[in-house]
Amino acid sequence: MIASQLRPGVAGLLATILLTACSVVPETGRYQAAWFPEDYMSSMGVQAYAEETARYPEIKSGPDYEMLQRLGKRIAEASGRDYDWEFKLLDAPDVPNAFCLPGGKVAVYSGILPITRNEDGLAAVVGHEVAHATSYHGNERMTQKAIAAGVATAADLALDGWGGVSDEERATWMGALGMATEYGALLPFSRTHEAEADEIGLRFLVRAGYDPEEAPRLWERMAELSPDRPAEFMSTHPDPLSRAARLRELIPKIVAEERQ
After folding, report:
1. Which of 24, 25, 37, 173, by CA, is between 20 and 30 Å from 142?
2. How far apart are CA 45 and CA 66, in angstroms?
3. 5-31, pLDDT tens digit by residue?
4. 3-state class of 26 per DSSP?
5. How many other CB atoms are found less than 10 A from the CB of residue 117?
6. Is 239 helix (H, G, I), strand (E, B) or coil?
C-alpha cells in the first residue's frame, strides 16, 4: 500500500517515524536507522558501564592512568561531542580490549597496553571506541535487532497462517531465516560499524595531534594475536590485516583534509 492510499493521519505518522528514525553519520555521510532516543541510550550506557567496570579493579593512579586521562580528553575534544565523558582503566591483564558505551563512557582493560605500546597506540584504540559512540552504532545495532525480531515474528505468524506446517518444517524455516539474518544482515552491519569506527577514529587521532601511523601498526600487532581467526564473513570484525591496509590508504587523505 502506498502512502497516498493511507488515511492522512496514518500517512503523516509513518512519515514522521521514518524521518526521525533515519539520520546521517556526520564524518562519513552514511545513512543509518537509529530508532531509540539518545537520552535513553545514554541512560543504558551509564547502567551498563557501572556493571561492566565493577567486574574488575579500577586503576586510579600511575603513569598508565594519567596517560589514559590525558589522551582521553584530547580525543573527546577532537570528536566535538559534548558528552559526560569518563575514561576508566581496569586492572585486567588478560583482557586485551576496550569499549565505549553511548554517552561517552570509555573503559580500557590493562591487557591491551602491551599491544598499544605507547600513547599514540592507545590513542588509536580510544579513538576507534569513541567513534562507535559518536556514530550511534549501539543505537543502530539495537534497531537492527529490533527489525530482525519483527521479521522473525512476522515469519512465524505467516507459517501459522499457512496451516499444515509441521514442527520440524517450522524449525527448518525459522532456522534458515535466522542464518540468513545473521550472515546476510547483522554480521555485515557489524563489520560496517568497525570499518567506519576505524575511519572516524583515525580522523579523531589526527585532530588530537597523535601519530596516525600507529593505527595500522596496532592492527598488524592484533593480527599476530589471532592467526586462526574465522573467515571474515563469519565474524563481526574485519580481518586485522585488511584493516591495517585500509587505514594506510586513508591516512594521506584524512591528514590532508584535517590540515586544511
Report:
1. 173
2. 24
3. 333 443 343 344 444 456 787 787 788
4. coil
5. 13
6. coil
Residue of 210, 185, 194, 209 whose CA lies nearest to 244: 194
Give the global pTM: 0.73
The SS3 assignment for 22 reads: strand
Name the β-bridge partners of 87.
Answer: 106
- Burial profile 145-161: b = 16 or more Cβ within 10 angstroms, e = fewer: eeebeeeeeebeeeeee
Please name the residue that has the C-alpha cell 561517552.
104
**Which residue in this structure is represented by grid cell 598488524?**
220
Our answer to whether residue 129 is catalytic in this structure is yes
What are the pLDDT digits (tens) for 68-110? 999 999 999 999 999 999 999 999 999 999 999 999 999 999 9
Short-list 121, 117, 72, 114, CA closest to 92: 114
Q: What is the DSSP letter of 237?
A: S
- Point out the catalytic residue in the list 27, 38, 119, 129: 129
Residue labelled with grid coordinates 594475536: 225
